[in-house]
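Mods, move this if it's the wrong board.
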Amino acid sequence: MKPLRVALLGCGVVGTQVVRLLTENADDLAARIGAPLELAGIAVRRPNRHPEVPAGLLTTDAASLVASDDVHLVVEVIGGIEPARGLLLAAIRSGKSVVTANKALLAEDGATMYEAARQAGVDLYYEAAVAGAIPLLRPLRESLAGDRITRVMGIVNGTTNYILSRMDETGAGFGEALEEATALGYAEADPTSDVDGFDAAAKAAILGALAFHTRVTASDVYREGIGEVTAADVASARAIGCTVKLLAICERLPAERGDGGDRGDRGGSVAVRVHPAMIPRSHPLAGVGDAFNAVFVEGDAAGQLMFYGRGAGGAPTASAVLGDLVAIARNRVTGGRGPGESAYADLTVRPMGQTLTRYHISLDVADRPGVLATVATAFASHEVSISTVRQEGRVEDASLVIVTHVAPDRALAATVEDLRKLDIVRDVASVMRVEGMAGA
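Not the wrong board. Structure tokens:
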């Protein structure tokens, strides 16, 4: 067959590796697809910064490249919302299937992209948008399409995982571990997107939408970063046999009265959140160190599945991009089409306050009789049950460490606020959620 011509938008760390793989694996890719792939052009902002790419392929006119009749498929690795959104919509509306690694765009406006692809009868693939080279999104939307997913929980940001792993291994503070991550290239010069949880929240929105057949945007995701995690928090976690990880958690919650319970499988709600949490060292996610990613998926029939690997980097992400490119190229050769958006369930996204979780709370309290009873009363007033208490007395005051049973997050937060107002509580030294423990 005649070659399929590919337009590449962006040629940074990932784009450069896409070009390399397309070139080095050209014969194998052609055999797998049934037609050769050829680069029609590469849109960049500064052509002189890409000496590794043949100059004849480079252009600063991305719009003209996308609109060219000589282009059949488009790959976008620019990132951000614009101009990526406009370019991809133009490509789709002109009948070109697209591959994108753009998590921010999909988390903000995935519905528009899906609808445009549906109307044009083309493919929209985005495996590289979450967890780099790890095959995760396609199993969710294809391999597990016959199952009912109940929970997705994982580590989806390598930068924060490296920082927290180093804090756990060395006892370093957040700032020191961040400096090390920056020096090694794991953290950007401006690490805000990673350490404040924006990157993980965008990925969580994509995972929640796929897992629960419901539109979830980044604004629906409760988000906390790791900037407030201290060496003392990590030490407290170690004391109860836990470690601290930044987790993306997507859960399907059972229907309640007035919550769509009459809609059969479509009843209930979903909760999607990103925050640091303590997890037992016996949990498989606890052993995921360095800049690796891992995601747990739980289904009614499949049970627990774990996906693990490198979640970032030029070559791993390019591997996922090429996998999608092969898929959409095959569909063009055979006249088929991949799955589109599945949002039929249309479940309510439950706010964080109604989400069930549990807390680990460290208090500095006055060391005198009746302290524990007073603290317990504060919990009881919000119907929060205490699971364990550990007290370490000193000459004038004491440290009280409490782990709760599962309760609505709103009730737990209200309890903490009441504790801060007690005269016997000198300081609420640490508050962190706990996941993966028995009863959680």
